[in-house]
Amino acid sequence: MSDMHPFQTGFEDTDGYLDTLRERLSVPRETDYLLLARDLPPDAADARLRMRSYVDDEVLPVINGYWERAEFPWELLPGLAATGLVGGVIQGHGAAGLSRLAAGLATVELARGDGSMNTFLGVQANLTMGTINLLGSEEQKQRWLPGMVRLEKIGAFALTEPRRGSDSAQLETSARREGDTWVLNGAKRWIGNGSMAHLVVIWARDEADGNVKAFVMERDDPRNPEDRPAGFSARTIDGKIGKRAVLQADLAFDGLRIPEANRLPGANSFRDTSRVLATTRGGASWESLGHAVACFEAAVAYADVREQFGHPIGGYQLVQNTLASMLSELTAMQLICFRMAELQEEGTWTGTMASIAKMHTANKARTIAQQARDLLGGNGLLLDFHVARHLTDMEVVHTYEGTEFVQSLLIGRKITGRSAF
Predict the structure, then answer these.
(1) Torsion over CA: 143, 149, 152, 155 (sign)
(2) How far is the C-alpha of 129 from the C-alpha of 122, rounded, in Å?
(3) Which of 43, 47, 116, 254 could serve as a FRET partner for 341 with CA atoms 20 to 30 Å apart?
(4) What would the pLDDT profile of 176-205 be if each residue is shown by its tens digit?
(5) Which tens digits make up the pLDDT trace of 266-298?
(6) If DSSP states are collapsed to H, E and C, what string results for 215-240?
(7) Which residues contact 364 (CB under 8 A, 6 or more apart)?
């Protein structure tokens, strides 16, 4: 499939069916039935509009082709940088400095366009830039953050290991100091941007004191396979059914040498790792909402145009029941996300709250995507109608930042006071 306009297919549209569907989908659908947007602060409304315009004008017309080819859309980076939203809630060094609500709504809009682009930006801004901003020295921030804001430097966050997912506190990658250099050995898996990053934040355990520390590996031209430090290798993971347009990689370190100047001084234990992860809690919930909005909008547009037995399917009871169910769950997700932003601004957001939000929103967005795919019938299997892409991307969101099972154990421990793991 080439980089087609949304809903462009190979057959002749003699009756204008696809043109009508395309026109209907371009009209924003009402999803704010509890009037949450009525009280949006100007900065949040502006962030949402800027990201929505970028997605509609630049992402949607081309993303299906990149997704199918499993290629990263480098051409979309200048427009993303031009939104002024890179960096999220980070203050200073050219970052956006958004409120939690504004950052969340920007995430919704980007995920409404594409989950791969949302993951790219989440890794870039929330995890990599967030780590440097929280745990780096002022010199390191000045050295790295401005270029990352402009998307001239791409970042990756290397924590997850082949044998360590939710139990990442037991990570096995090691670091040994030799004078002013650290020697790293180990492996990482599922590292977003890992094979295309200029800067990779690597979490490793100090052999001397057993504590977890963070090191920044640099390279000048990651698109050149010859430009890589000795002792470092990266292999892009292929064969994925979701998030195909973002490059996730296996990384290996075999005597990789990193200067002491690239060790983040604020990272001295896994508690510091957890501080970074705590700042990103909730991102998967906003993303889930974005995927759900995209699927709901596509379903409503399709129900308005698609005819069976002489009538648009939107006039049938079962279809209306499905759309009503989708909207009710979508509304509940909105309420959770908006409340989350309020509590995060207050500083009262907790891990248990994050687990409740992730478990609920990921489950409901997954269901909404499935309902939309069912409603579109055979067309729901085609990338041209977008729902299939959001459906499989939601399988990824459902997994990362803790699956439903992991979240239920965290919530259950809080409820009962007993750990089941």
Answers:
(1) positive
(2) 10
(3) 116
(4) 999 999 999 999 999 999 999 999 999 999
(5) 999 999 998 898 888 889 999 999 999 999 999
(6) EEEECCCCCCCCCCCCCEEEEECCCC
(7) 288, 292, 329, 330, 332, 333
